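Appendix C: a fully annotated inverse folding record. The material below is reproduced so that readers can follow the format used throughout the book. The structure is listed first as tokens, followed by the designed sequence.
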């Protein structure tokens, strides 16, 4: 607790070191990812493990909730990307390294972001396309089907964030 300085809870449940985590936008859940090849969803108020998301074949280097908290995207340096139903803890889709952007071994993993359009209501995965000279563009995927929609090419810097204009027609990549 920031105000009192007291520990609220300790998250116990991963079998290896927690690599990172974040709150869902509403603050009700915490998403963590670990060297044990899993992602975990926790009740933020009680610290209770709600779901352990297992199925990655390699290290999980990132996990993030969708803007509405309904889905969790996870990825690792192998290029594997999974999308999970947050309430049910089940895998919805998996993009294998053969389908998702191949990582550059010297660069690390491709950044992945979940972006949501409001009209019509759709959820997308936005991933970096990596090459020998760094980020060479972006790929946009339909999160419901796993279908690759568009390759956005051009010289871009490292992807720090992505957001769709409310009408879903323009992607802002920062």
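Designed amino acids, in order:
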């Amino acid at each position: 607790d920031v105000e009192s300085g007291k520990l609220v809870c300790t998250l116990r449940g991963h079998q290896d070191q927690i690599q990172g985590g974040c709150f869902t936008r509403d603050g009700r859940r915490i998403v963590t990812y670990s060297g044990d090849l899993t992602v975990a969803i926790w009740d933020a108020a009680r610290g209770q493990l709600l779901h352990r998301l297992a199925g990655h074949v390699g290290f999980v280097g990132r996990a993030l909730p969708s803007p509405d908290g309904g889905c969790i995207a996870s990825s690792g340096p192998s290029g594997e990307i999974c999308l999970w139903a947050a309430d049910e803890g089940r895998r919805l889709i998996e993009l294998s390294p053969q389908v998702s952007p191949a990582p550059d071994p010297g660069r690390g993993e491709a950044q992945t972001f979940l972006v949501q359009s409001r009209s019509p209501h759709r959820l997308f995965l936005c991933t970096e396309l990596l090459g020998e000279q760094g980020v060479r563009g972006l790929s946009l995927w339909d999160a419901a089907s796993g279908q690759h929609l568009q390759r956005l090419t051009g010289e871009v810097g490292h992807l720090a964030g992505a957001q769709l204009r409310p009408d879903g027609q323009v992607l802002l990549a920062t």
